[in-house]
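hey so u asked for the seq, here:
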Amino acid sequence: MQFRDYYQVMGLPRSATPDDIKRAYRKLARKYHPDVSKEPDAESRFKEVGEAYEVLKDPEKRAAYDRLGADWQAGQEFRPPPDWNAGSEFSRGRAGPDEEFSDFFETLFGRGFAGARRSRGTLDLQGEDRHARVSIDLEDAYNGAMRMLTLRTPELNAEGRMTMREHTLNVKIPRGILPGQQIRLAGQGGPGIGKGKTGDLYLQVEISPHRLYRMEGRDVYLDLPVAPWEAVLGATVKAPAPGGAVELKIPPNSAAGRTLRLKGRGIPANPPGDYYVVLQIALPPADSDAAQAVYSAMGQQFRSFNPRTNLGV
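ran it, structure tokens below
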């Protein structure tokens, strides 16, 4: 697709202030409004101006666009880098019935905005919904938690320069939340225009890798080392679990890879997930003459045992 120079569309330099952008938009919107303009391309120009204004009036989108625009010129073939919005909140609106934006715009910022209402020369526009990612621990998914999060948002300072502002939010992590689910913070998104309401902030949840556990949906898995004699003779052992340590009965003659299920001890829900313990045989080291003698005696005792029988050798 072609790169769009929104500053060129608005007839503005890249150093334009927010007031400059507003004035240019009002002037061009009046000039190209399809209901009053006599220009042959009035409708398409009106849409171009509206699209450019939606980006340049928004500090977050303008900052992202300016970062990309340094490497592109109008008319060039354009592909944004995959991490162009990393490290910041990003916005994604809801398309109104009369809103149309180019493929270039949708590639950068998602499809559409909240619907705008225009009447008697005024513009009421609901603020954009903003999106960010938040990483939590697996224990937070089990128990719920309160977290203080620091987010970065581009904004214009008193001199009209783009800066990154950090702000903190206290966020309640609900019990039983899963990776990919979202937490909605009403009224924490972009500000509205005119009588438009403030948008919402959506936090997409990611669960940090855990040193002991792994998740599959709402089920939680643990690889549990057991001694050879515990696996062969059976035993009752303590095993860690996100909700607190549990006593686990190892059945006799358990092989490596055997899975024991604790029903309902996974991520809370209705119904909850399960907790699975996968047995792993841990061999004691032969780091002394006595230990080596024990392994040698085992070799003699079980000399007919071939662990590779199933491999055909």
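The chain has three domains: 6-125, 130-207, 213-311. The chain is about 25% helix and 25% strand.
lmk if thats what u needed
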